[in-house]
Amino acid sequence: MNVSNTNFNRGFPKPATSIETTWKPGAVVGLFVQVPFSQKLSLQQEYLFSQMGGKVKSTGTEYRFNYLSLPVLLKYSLTPRFGIALGPQFDLLLQAKQKINGASTTITHDTEERSISATAGAEFYVLDNLSLNLRYLYGLNHVGLSQRSGNPTEFKYEMAQLSATVTF
Fold first, then answer.
1. pTM reported for the whole predicted model
2. Domain interval for residue 112
3. What CATH number is attached to the domain comprising 126?
4. Where in the numbering of this chain does the Outer membrane protein beta-barrel domain appear (predicted)?
5. Which of 16, 78, 122, 145 has its CA 20 to 30 A from that of 87?
């Protein structure tokens, strides 16, 4: 599960007045491959379906974006049960929707197709093959809306994610 925000105040150009947004819950599910370099250091490539979004308080406009997310994380084990991870995340847009006054519209072809973020987090092994992960994602690029239909606006993502991982 995750909670994400579309921060328009970090967009370009910056809005004349601050845009207040709220965080929206979403889901994340996927697979990963871990390549160990040593007993403490490894590289982890993930293949995830991620839901991200946000809501503009003043207009009530809600956004929901479905992505194929591809984090590439460098993981370091501080203890046998606790580790940290850091790396980039590349997101490819699968579907985008906008909801205004209860009416939902697909805006996939009017939304920028990619997003790049920095990800940092911690992992705690509850059992030998079951871990809990907590991450923060910080958007690096501007994601554009209304790119083809005029009146373009941009935002950057922020996301916190809590997940459980089962390893085989």
1. 0.91
2. 2-166
3. 2.40.160.20
4. 2-143
5. 145
